Amino acid sequence: xxxxxxxxxxxxxxxxxxxxxxxxxxxxxxxxxxxxxxxxxxxxxxxxxxxxxxxxxxxxxxxxxxxxxxxxxxxxxxxxxxxxxxxxxxxxxxxxxxxxxxxxxxxxxxxxxxxxxxxxxxxxxxxxxxxxxxxxxxxxxxxxxxxxxxxxxxxxxxxxxxxxxxxxxxxxxxxxxxxxxxxxxxxxxxxxxxxxxxxxxxxxxxxxxxxxxxxxx
Length: 217
Fold this sequence. Notes:
alpha+beta; Alpha-Beta Plaits; 2 domains; 5-stranded antiparallel sheet; two-stranded antiparallel ribbon; 5 helices
């Protein structure tokens, strides 16, 4: 597995893998809050490197990554400021249409949840060919290509609807390779229950912008 950094977040892109991806609106977290969160995570990883080695270190880093994501997502679920355009159906519907349009040519769509300022996506890259090399990205993969299309098309349409220029989505996304079937099901449940956890609905089926592939139900 190769690790590289693109716009400050770690990405692990493997062929034929399932991915849990979270992407958010530009400005949805204050810069100082995001910097503090990132620094805490980097400090924790350095501390772990001095205490563990080999498989034990990988497992502890995995746990640290989960804690980091939990803090990150909690901030997004209960925002104090920042844009919340996706709470409006006219913007959420644009994202929904594109999520389904890209399936199955660019990914296999398993699940998603659209919140007011971010989206969770669970998809699979099995049998999706790698795209031609991109001149501006050293590590351009099928995942990179799918996310560029998704964020590019929806960002353009939403910005046009807003009548404004500038980034609609934050450049980086949170990408996580699903390790096994147990984790896949845990993430699926996490996505479905995100609006419930945020106190927006009592049952996940009541949230208009949660989708679970019927084959998984």
